[in-house]
Fold this protein.
Amino acid sequence: MIPQQIVEFISQLGLPMSFGTRDADLQTSVSHAWGMKVSDDSEKITFYFPKIALSEKHLANMQHNGRIAFTIGHSVSHVCYQLKGKYLSHSHCNEDDNQFIKKNFSVFENSAVEIYGEPVREIFKKLNFGEYISVTFYVEDIFNQTPGPGAGTKFN
């Protein structure tokens, strides 16, 4: 079960996030995700990523070995967590998912503008990732990835 303080942190909108999978030869594939939700029982994560972002490779990897590493952090405080676990399912996003992704992306965009200035907004306006896929995985391990003395520490 994901501890409540971590659920609260990772449930914030607009946080940068990425995930990785690996193939049978241990070759990794990494992509950005543009939104995530924690299940009601705090044991699973569902994240959303663009279909164009190596989706066939990621899905093949997940279906082959089931391993997912998901990282989420805060751009200013650098608080960061890595959640590792077992692939459960994937699906095409529905309209509710797409609205959530759009809202999350908007908060991420506004955060980037606060850091880098208004010109970055023009870059975000040009991005169109098309269709998204949702992936749900069971969280088995959580690691503190915040820079500092506790980096890499596994949560019990």
About this structure: The mean pLDDT is 91. The two ends are 10 Å apart (CA to CA).
